[in-house]
TrEMBL record:
One Pfam family, short name: DHQS
Record InterPro entries: DHQS, DHQS/DOIS_N, DHQS_C
Protein name: 3-dehydroquinate synthase
Gene that encodes the chain: aroB'
Family to which this protein belongs: Belongs to the archaeal-type DHQ synthase family.
Domain (3-dehydroquinate synthase C-terminal): residue spans on this chain: 154-328
Amino acid sequence: MKLFWVDLRPWRKDLATTALESGADALFVENAERVRELGRVTTVAENGDLVPGKDVFEIEIVDKETEEEALRLSREGLVIVRTGDWTVIPLENLVAQSDRIVAAVGSAEEAKVALTVLERGAAGILLATDDPAEIRRVAKTVAGAGEEVPLVPFEVTRIVPVGMGDRVCVDTCSILADGEGMLVGNTSSAFLMVHPETLENPYVAPRPFRVNAGAVHAYILLPGGKTAYLADLAVGDRVLVAEHTGPTHDAVVGRVKIERRPLLLVEAKAGDATVSLVLQNAETIRLVREDGTAVSVAALAVGDRVLGSVAEGGRHFGVAVKETILEK
C-alpha cells in the first residue's frame, strides 16, 4: 500500500477537507490541532503523530552527497525527497536502496512516475497543490498504484467433496467488481483467484463486498507479498484484491464470517506448479477464468482453466523466507 500524504503548509481548510474525503493517509501541517478538529488522520507536525526531524525527514537532492544523506536518514525513518527539476534518476537511486522514500510531487503525473520508478515505486508521495481537484486526481493515482501480481492459468486436475468443515467469508468495506478476486491457497506457494459474490442468483441476492474465500486453514495473499490464515483475519485488516489482468488494490476487512459448511477440494496445475484449495461446496462460490468471467465450483470440470498465482513457498508469520519447507 502506497502512502498518500498531503502538504498543507500554509494551512487551507478546504484542501484539508478534500484530502480527508479523498482518503489521505497523513497531513503535513504546522499545527496538528487544526486537523483534529476536522477528523481522525495521521498528522506530521511538531505537535503531531509524526514529528519532523525525528520520525520524518525532509531533504532536497542536489548532488551525490545529499543523495547519500537521504539514504542515511532513511535508516532512521521516512524521508521526503525533493528534486529541483524533478529529475527521476536520483529518485531511482534512492528507491533501489530504500523502502522508506516518500517523493514530494505537485501533480498526478509526477505522482504516477514516483510510484512506478523501477517498477516497485517510492513508498509514497507528499502532494503540494493549491487545487482540490488535483488532490482527488492524485488520490485516484495512488489507489491504482497497487502491486502487480503475475497471474497464470491453471488447469483443473481434480475436484472432490471432502465433507464438513469451517469456511471463511471475507466481507470487505468495498464494492468489488466482476473479474476481481482474492488469491487463496492451501499452501503459501500457489493461490487460486476466488471471485466475489457479485453475480445474480435465483436463491440469494448478490453480496459484492464479499468473497467466500475458503477453509479456515487456507492462506490469503495480503498487500506487500505477505500472507495470513483466513481464520486470523480481523476487522480493519487489509487484503489484496487482484484484477484478472494483474493490477491489484487493497480492501479493508469489515467482517469475517466463519461457518460450518460442506467443503470441496480443487486441485490444478500450471507447468511444474501445482495449487489446491478447499472451498465451500455451493454454486455461489466461483473461481475466475482467463477472460475474467466467473465459473461456479458447482459447474467446474477437470480440464477447465482458472487463474491463480505462483509464489516462492516458505513463510514465517506470513512473511516470505528462503528456507526448505515442504507443504502438501
